[in-house]
Amino acid sequence: MIAVIKNSATADQIEHLVDWLKEQSLDVHISKGADYTVLGLVGDTTKIDIDLLNNLAIVETAKRVSEPFKQCNRKFHPEDTVIDVGGVKVGGGNFCLIAGPCSIESEEQIIEVAKAVKKAGATMLRGGAFKPRTSPYDFQGLKADGLELLLEAKKVTGMPIVTEIMNPNHLPLFEEVDVIQVGARNMQNFELLKELGKTNKTILLKRGLANTIKEFLMSAEYIMSEGNSNIILCERGIRTYETYTRNTMDISAIPVLQELTHLPVIADPSHATGKSRLVLPMAMASAAAGADGLMIEVHNDPAKALCDGAQSLTPEEFAGVVNKVNDVRKVIL
Ligand code: PEP
Ligand code: MN
After folding, report:
1. pLDDT score, position 61
2. The CATH number of the domain covering residues in 2-63
3. Tell me, what's the pLDDT at 36?
4. CA of 270 to the centre of ligand 2 (A)
5. What would the mean pLDDT of 66-85 be, rounded to a whole number?
6. Cβ distance 116 to 317 under 8 Å?
7. CATH superfamily of the domain spanning 83-332
8. Coil, helix or strand for 69?
9. Rounded to two decimals, what is the model's pTM?
10. 271 lines ligand 1 (CB under 6 A)
11. 70 CB under 6 A from ligand 1?
């Protein structure tokens, strides 16, 4: 349920109403916008008499939120959420560029790529240390050693880092990680989501291979229901009957998510297409569709990459994508 509060309401009046709602065993999320304040009510709202709320002098309107996702719903929080990742803002017009290799392979590799993507305009560095691979015989990442190397790259470049978690027991290793990624394969690993909800880390939640937008938002809701609202959603392509591309990039998910949720929405054209030459057009399309940022795989030697080389850009190619995406953003702003 939400209650939109009139502009004329005083802070005392709002506080009085909030106290009363809390006495009804509800959690109250206050969202102060430039034009109005919205109270988002979470819990068993069936006891609340909506007519009574609507008749209060300070209430402009009160209504039930029919969607099962509540806290991530834009109705709860009409303004875009802006997340601050070590000084890099994401959302609400702040565009982020996350770049780096699929997996961290060596000190030389991650430092070289980190410096190159920073120079090209990346605002955050990515690199997988714990890699979910379809085959158990494929390279699974350097694990804790990989994280150490990524932290070294963070120190050298000053860029915030993004890396994937697969097991909640590994959380202590992620202390100095700025953004914890939940990969597509774990989007509905509810125990993992709940544990991440108990932290105050920024979570980059990727859409599952075969998940609907509603399921995607319900996974964000799992994290938020435990108290963590620092979530960036990432469209990374879904599985369809098309096999020419690795996945089918659901560009329409970007404006749909922007409509349904206040959380920032970014796009990953690398995993969506699986082909490096398709990354530029899909990156531009994502920016044009209103994405709040991009995550792109970049490798210093894509042909020798231990993971996802076919979709990885060279640093030079990445610099070209950054320029074109900036051009697109100038046109749509
Ligand atoms: C990744 O970002 O390297 C990754 C494994 O992505 P996804 O979970 O989207 O497949
Ligand atoms: Mn990858």
Report:
1. 96
2. 3.30.70.1140
3. 86
4. 8
5. 96
6. no
7. Aldolase class I (3.20.20.70)
8. coil
9. 0.97
10. yes
11. no
